[in-house]
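Weekly modeling sync, notes
Attendees: S.R. (lead), two postdocs, one rotation student

Agenda item 3: backlog of single-chain predictions. S.R. asked that every request posted to the team notebook include the full sequence so nobody has to chase files. The rotation student volunteered to paste the first one in as an example of the format we agreed on. Action items at the bottom.

Example entry:
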Amino acid sequence: MKYSQIDNTLFIKNRKKFTNKLDTNSVAFFNSNDIYPVSADSTLPFEQHRDIFYLSGIDQEESILVLFPDSIDEIFKEILFIRETNDHIVHWEGEKLTKSDAFEISGIKNVHWLGEFDEILSKILKEVDHVYINTNEHYRQNVETQTREDRFIEKLKNFGGLSFKKSNPILQYQRSVKDEIELSLIKKACDITKKGFERVLSFVKPGVWEYEIEAEFSHEFLRNKSKRFAYTPIIASGINSNYLHYIKNNKQCQSGEIILMDVGAEYANYSSDMTRTIPVNGKFTTRQKTIYQAVLNVKKSATELLRPGVLWKDYHIEVGNIMTSELLKIGLLNKVDIQNQTKKKPAYKKYFSHGTSHHMGLDTHDYCDLDMPFEKNMVLTVEPGIYIMEEGFGIRLEDDVVINENGSPTNLMANIPIEIEEIEELMN
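Predicted structure, as returned to the notebook:
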């Protein structure tokens, strides 16, 4: 890992919160992600399953976490299984976690080698009434690959007679409300993103390629202990700025165009998520300024709506009203458009087709329960946009904010330039 070791009190607290929600005499299992093959002997870079990381801090393949808080045997209450290293592995891959390392990271005293798992599993399953399995319940999930977690669930079914429950509904809520340590890690990711953006502002000029801009971000992220982008970066110039998930990043940027950049650094597996739109030549046109300011106005107003007790659906309805007002002011909508709109197809959707916010944290689109009111220490993006295909450009602006108990949310990206004058001054 490139990041500094995280205070293990975070993971100790996370496990306590989780186990307090389990039914009596239950056990919960969490597995690392697979290492996925490309072809031949090549593999994709390992990415830890966010749930086992959230509960243990372990960032290594072939790890298993077992939580059995009601066990009569103290050694079974919390168990961490990790891959046993040997001389061959050390020679080819470098050192893996020792038992002592795993304890320091996680705060779990009972650490075993993975080879001991099956024997201990059989003993535990004889004692429990319920088994919590870790399925993917995220509202956006669309996974076709069978995961290590999926294979483990199939293995459990072979034991027979077990009562299964799901861990994810508990984690949906728990992970959506951030600990102060988590907030500091997300802020660190945001600060690294800021450094990347400032580097790009001094780099961009007519004739640069989108992938060159991507490379500038990547360089700055890596040199600041981020292992990668938090998600596939969008560097969209000209007409590409209208395509919401444009990731080709292969066009040359021309004077007079704008560049929409949706990028974020990760830090310690925590995400940041920023969007900025800048002029290729360092100066916005009058029309670009008009649209830009409208988007910024919506973003500022939408941010103020994020308060405890507000419902997700009500928030997005109100943001739609705010966007409609701005679109009327700048002439993209008229009274006839408003008269002809329906609840299912509001007029503003012609120019603003996506949602305004999503939860974020260990995942860029983090766990949440969309029926649950917003709470203090939830972290959300605010990312309105206006996309005008007929004019050949779109503008989106995005920051990450923390909901406070009272008053306005805290903008974790408040120090990242966003006003028109700031952008132009830094580019010239």
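Discussion: group reviewed the output briefly. Residues 61 and 207 are 43 Å apart (CA to CA).
Action items: rotation student to repeat for the remaining queue; S.R. to check formatting next week.
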